[in-house]
Amino acid sequence: MPELPEVETYRRFLNEVILHQAIVALEVRDAHVLGTPEDVLRENLVGRQVTATRRIGKNCFLELSSGQVLALHFGMSGDVGAYRHDHDAPRFTRVALHLADGLRVAFIDPRKFGRIRLTESVAHYQQAKKLGPDALDVTATQLQQRLSPKKTILKPLLLDQSITAGLGNWIVDEVLFQAKIHPERRANTLVTAEFEALHAAIQLVLTTAISHEATYRHFPASFLIHARGWDESATPGTEKHLFCPKHSKTKIAKSYVGGRATYVCPRCQPEPVKSE
DNA sequence: ACCCTTGTTTATGA
DNA sequence: ATCATAAACAAGGG
């Protein structure tokens, strides 16, 4: 689930539990999630402390007292947790930082697409990974500048972390629904008012999601996410509320855009005409 | 047993 | 150079 709102929620959690405390041990339960060799990581972590936390898009950073930075990416299924006793370690804990006061901070990742690596600075990492401006910082003008030269369809561009960092699959669908723009519109056909609507929708969706700590069930009824069928009966074909939150008679359409599952209200988000 | 999945990287071909 | 597509990564859960 980790898109920007989840990662921001993780960052705030880490900021609460880990700041200004000596790291006394690095426990590696599965080295697969390490993007830096275990011994190098241990050398740079043990005896140091985290002085600040940062986030760009879906990446979380722990700034260390050594000046180095620990970069966390959560892949498809990453999470964080804290525990005190070994037998209380969350299931799928892959790595844990042991703190001076006995608390252990867990990097949890069932599917192991996440990575923990050391980097010299946040700026260096941002450049190396080609991350664009964070989705919460990007302005309507910047969006227009970055998107309008492109003739390709909008949704894959919004998922592209080098254009703007932090938007994932469901958020893009939610943003486009709130902005009333079809995901297959060509980016160069959007008018200024639509870039402004896009920007407003990004702000709305991200701030709403963060304020609910990314718990989907608590999102407003006006959100498309409730039509994705993630709740209760998630068996394909048996999804429950498949109707538009604004047009209770209009069924939400599911398709694949850029190879990703995509949900659209055909009435709120009219399909582009062929000439576009 | 089969199909789906929130992300990113890489290969391949147009 | 740009773009589209698919596969790969790994594994849980329906």
Automatic annotation (TrEMBL):
Protein name: DNA-(Apurinic or apyrimidinic site) lyase
Gene Ontology MF term list: class I DNA-(apurinic or apyrimidinic site) endonuclease activity; damaged DNA binding; oxidized purine nucleobase lesion DNA N-glycosylase activity; zinc ion binding
Annotated InterPro entries: FPG_cat (IPR012319), FPG_Glyclase (IPR020629), FPG_N (IPR035937), H2TH_FPG (IPR015886), Ribosomal_uS13-like_H2TH (IPR010979)
Keyword Nucleotide-binding: no
Domain called Formamidopyrimidine-DNA glycosylase catalytic: residue spans: 2-114
Pfam families, A to Z: Fapy_DNA_glyco (PF01149), H2TH (PF06831)
Binding partners and assembly: Monomer.
Catalytic activity: Hydrolysis of DNA containing ring-opened 7-methylguanine residues, releasing 2,6-diamino-4-hydroxy-5-(N-methyl)formamidopyrimidine; 2'-deoxyribonucleotide-(2'-deoxyribose 5'-phosphate)-2'-deoxyribonucleotide-DNA = a 3'-end 2'-deoxyribonucleotide-(2,3-dehydro-2,3-deoxyribose 5'-phosphate)-DNA + a 5'-end 5'-phospho-2'-deoxyribonucleoside-DNA + H(+)
A GO biological process held by the record: base-excision repair
Keywords recorded for this protein, A-Z: DNA damage, DNA repair, DNA-binding, Glycosidase, Hydrolase, Lyase, Multifunctional enzyme
Family from the record: Belongs to the FPG family.
Organism: Hymenobacter daecheongensis DSM 21074
Keyword Chloroplast: no
